[in-house]
Specification:
Number of domains: 1
Order of helices and strands: HEHEEHH
Oligomer: single chain
Number of strands: 3
Largest sheet: 3 strands, antiparallel
Shape: elongated
Helix content: 25-40%
CATH topology: Alpha-Beta Plaits
Distance between the termini: 68 Å
Number of helices: 4
C-alpha cells in the first residue's frame, strides 16, 4: 500500500514538472511611441497561451511569458501587427498602421505626450 501511494505521488510530481516545462519567456522589439501604444501592444499580445505581456516604452521590447504548447512568438507578433505595431518578426499592414491614432504613428516619431 505504501509503495502505491509513493508511486502515485511521484507520478503527480512528474506530471506537474512536465506541465511547467513548456512555459517560455521571450522578448522581441515592437515599434510604438507612448502609453496608448503600450496598452494596445500588451492587449494584442494576450493570445491563447500567453500568461503575461509587458512592453517597455523606453527600450521598445515586449516580454511575454507563454505556454509553448499553445502559442509561439510568431503568433503573438502577428496579433500585435494586426493592432498596427510592427515587430522583429512581423511587419504591420499599412491599413492597420494607418488605423492607429496620430500620436501612435511610430514611423514619424511625432508623439507629443
Amino acid at each position: 500500500m505504501k509503495s502505491i501511494i509513493i508511486f502515485i505521488f511521484s507520478a503527480l510530481l512528474s506530471s506537474a514538472a512536465l506541465a511547467q516545462s513548456d512555459i517560455k519567456t521571450d522578448s522581441f522589439k515592437v515599434d510604438g511611441n507612448c502609453n496608448m501604444c503600450k496598452k494596445r501592444i500588451e492587449e494584442a499580445a494576450y493570445v491563447r497561451g500567453v500568461k503575461r505581456a509587458e512592453w517597455n516604452e523606453a527600450t521598445h521590447m515586449l516580454t511575454v511569458i507563454y505556454r509553448s504548447s499553445k502559442t509561439d512568438e510568431k503568433t503573438i507578433s502577428q496579433s500585435v501587427a494586426k493592432a498596427g505595431h510592427s515587430s522583429d518578426f512581423t511587419t504591420a499592414a499599412e491599413k492597420d498602421y494607418n488605423n492607429l491614432p496620430d500620436c501612435c504613428h511610430y514611423k514619424t516619431n511625432t508623439c507629443s505626450h
